[in-house]
Amino acid sequence: MSLxxxxxxxxxxxxxxxxxxNEPLMDGAADGPAQPRASATxxxxxxLSQGFGGLRFPADLERRxxxxxxxERLRLIHRGVFWVLLLWNSLLLTDWLMVRDQxxxxxxxxxxxxxxxxxxxxxxxxxxxxxxxxxxxxxxxPVGAAVTIxxxxxxxxxxxxxxxxxxxxxxxxxxxxxxxxFWKAMLVDTVILMMYAWAALTLPNPPTAVMIAMTLVxxxxxxxxxxxxxxxxxxxxxxxxxxxxxxxxxxxxVQGNQQLERLSRFDPLTSLANRRHFDEFLKHTxxxxxxxxxxxxxxxxxxxxxxxxxxxxxxxAGDACLQAVAEALRDCLRQPEDLVARYGGExxxxxxxxxxxxxAMVAAERVRAGVASGTTPVTVSIGVASVRPGAxxxxxxxxxxxxDQALYQAKGDGRNRVCSADVQPSSDLAQVPxxxxxxxxxxxxxxxxxxxxxxxxxxQIDRSCxxxxxxxxxxxxxxxxxxxxxLRYLVLSGILSLFVFNGFLWADYLMAADVFELAVKIRxxxxxxxxxxxxxxxxxGRDWVxxxxxxxxxxxLVLVSGVFSAACVAYILAATRSPTGQYYHVGLMVVVIYxxxxxxxxxxxxxxxxxxxxxxxxxxxxxxxAFNERLILPVISLVGATVVSTLMANYxxxxxxxxxxxxxxxxKQLLQDLDEVHQRxxxxxxxxxxxxxxxxxxxxxxxxxxxxxxxxxxxxxxxIMLDVDHFKKYNDRYxxxAGDxxxxxxxxxxxxxxxxxGDLVARYGGExxxxxxxxTSAELAQQAAERIRLAVQALQVRHEGSDTxxxxxxxxxxxxxxxxxxxxxxxxIAAADAALYQAKHGxxxxxxxxxxxxx
Length: 855
What we know:
Helix content: 55-70%
Shape: elongated
Strand order of the largest sheet: 4-5-3-6-7
């Protein structure tokens, strides 16, 4: 009864966490977050999907399975040996009653040979390999069978032939208590069956009817216990694979979360910390310095005339410039407890722990000189402020304001210099804590954030399975989810049970010939029609049953049918006066085995069914006047041992089924979490965290694909390049948080104005945005650009530092080209950039159109 779900998952490429705050991203991170690797599955999921009907994994996986289950198998063998010794030595009573003349030999063989052998094995079992343990456990069965056959063949008692039925107990011990691996159990049962056949042929003048009926019972026991052994091992292997796959999924989730943590804290272009990470680091450093009375310094760094450099050399050169400056900062500021971050556009910020103002000025001058002497022809201006965080009225906001003021002074004094400023105590108003940070697409997903019922199941998995009962809501869910497969299984096993039940008419004829006609009426005339009616209802009325009949009522019906079948057999046995009828009472073993192992009643229902059958058996034996008194206890004990061993197997099978169901629930949640991690990684790879627009990396890939598609149909592609006018002044006047909100508003306006399928808006860098419009002429693109310009102006975002207007405005460059030979997407970007340059030099707050060169 399979309940697992498809176990496929995207394998995520982990990025190791840094050794310190300034460690850069892995190779390739400068181009943006690494894309998740291709979809993959674990070897455990592959083994599950491919199946293992032969109960064998590939060699390496099989070795790991045996090693992984070795401790549990050792505990199981310990428990099994305890039950073996208990039941094995309880057979001394059977020896006394059935082969009394060999009781002395039985005492020696059981107490002085077999029991010490088992105890010796228990003492040395830890020193054996897992394979050796399994083989020794398997060998104990044939050894016990040999003892039984020896006593039988050497006894002259009239009950000696029927004593061979004790071999059924050996088979039940192997399958239900020792729970041998299937192929070893098959080998052991085959050996025992051959030993039984040899003993039956060796016996002088055995009663034919008794031997035939006993053979039929023994074969039934072998078949049904092997079926149980198969499913026990199959469930055990399935659960091990699912548990290993779950651990694999958890590792993927941890790695994905690490990658999300890494990418959400670092700037993809420069590999420095981003502003979010810096703000968190500043808060923690401030708290630590306040407690220790230590000093902290802040460096605010701005690349001089970077906008002009970007316009003259292009964005790729501008990116290379930012990366070079970032590398210089890393080289000059190497203390593990310091943090360097890209704070926005061409601005960087550095927090120096344990640094007073003179030390910070030295570090800042080292940075300035390092950048000036670098390969990129740019300089930087640096503002420095230092403070002891414990001082009254001093806040992180005041420290940043002082560094920003010093930077403003450095730029006003001619740039390419370092200036410092004193930190002023903040007013109460300025000490209002900042707004909480918004949730970023790259924030990690907590792996423990499971659904309530899954978390509860994980916490109670052992305790719940021990009592074969989940908490109420989860129990109902378990029953409902498994109801369709369960009903189908019960119907199919019920059909098989009819053949087995009526097949014992042969045994009725041999063992209870005087009531054979009654047996036919009961089996074929009473039980079979009722059973067929229920089976037809379960098969053809399946939807109605699943919709209206509670799962527990279905189990009750199966329970009643099992007890009723046993009652039919018990009635036949009570009615017969045949001398061999007393041996036939062991036939109830088959009913018990079938109900508990083949039909696999739920454990508590199996227990109720077994107790009812055992009670009928005991009552039937005791009520038969002519029942041989020497057979009463052996027959009762044999059926009782069958109840115990099959209930142990039934318990193990349901426990494994319930554990597998919980594994399914947990893995389903893990798959959802991993899918969310994958989606967030995709967002980090494609989306600008601040504005929600696409980033430059995705823009370039999208434009390349759009251009290639347009080449096939000679279609036109338009590009709109937008720049926020005087954004540097806006940032300086209103602060970076206000600048961020302004950029978000501009991005939202662009996305609102460009809603056609295929239109794409991306943040190109700093305050610049680009829109790609497939199948769009220059005129239509110009109209769209004008809509965007007017919409931004309509926002009425105040900008008192602008030389263009009292509000935020944008300049827009538009270019369109027909894709063809000799023309590339880079040419189209260059044309839009040139048009933007014209718009800015033409007075800003306008749209300029530049026709791209056509092929």
